[in-house]
Amino acid sequence: MGYGNFYLSSVPFDKSITDFPLSPVFAPLIFKVVVLKNSIPAINYTIGEPGFFLAENNGSSEKNLYHLKSGNHEIIPAQRPLGMDVQINFGNEISEAGFYDLFLPDTSAHYWLGFNFNRKESNLELMNSEELKAQAKRLNAQIISNSDADLSAVVSELNHGIPLWKYCIVFSLLFMLIEILILRFWR
Questions:
Q1: Strand arrangement of the beta sheet that strand 67-70 belongs to
Q2: Looking at the structure, do residues 136 and 168 belong to the same domain, yes or no?
Q3: CB 102, CB 113: distance < 8 Å
Q4: Checking DSSP bridges between strand 44-46 and strand 110-116, what pairing results, if any?
Q5: Closest CA relative to residue 100, chosen from 90, 87, 86, 85
Q6: What is the domain count for the chain?
Q7: Is 65 exposed, middle or buried (0-12, 13-18, 19+ CB in 10 A)?
Q8: pLDDT tens per residue across span 169-178
Q9: What is the mean pLDDT of residues 113-139?
Q10: For residue 175, what are the domain limits?
């Protein structure tokens, strides 16, 4: 026994009445029916939002309740039998993000559930240039605003300074040439 699916077609599949089985829509429709046959329960939840999980009912009693465990943190969530399943309500009992093992002691019933913090906590608003400059000044940071130059070259120049060794080599060769010319033609 279990939860079944019932699909009803208002069009008969007889070729003398309709060409629906020959239609290009027929194959994707049958594929979708097969895919939707096995409904997969949600395995990820958001902390602070109401959520429940349907687990198999193995004759739950006060001694045989589902436990939710992550590391050293273990709780017994609120449970309500619903026919062949048990509805497990998490409420506000989860406070840390991570993976939790939902299990029924002394049985093989195990489910892995993921709990994440609400993504609305991430403020995705951008700062304008004045706010960015004020923030950089507080943090003693420098803003690179030259958009035309290559970023790696600008960062390398900030880290290493202007490479003067090339100029030193050119000037030393130039001065050696001048010295050779002076020694050769100075008489």
A1: 44-46, 110-116, 98-103, 67-70, 73-75
A2: yes
A3: yes
A4: parallel
A5: 90
A6: 2
A7: middle
A8: 999 999 999 9
A9: 84
A10: 129-185
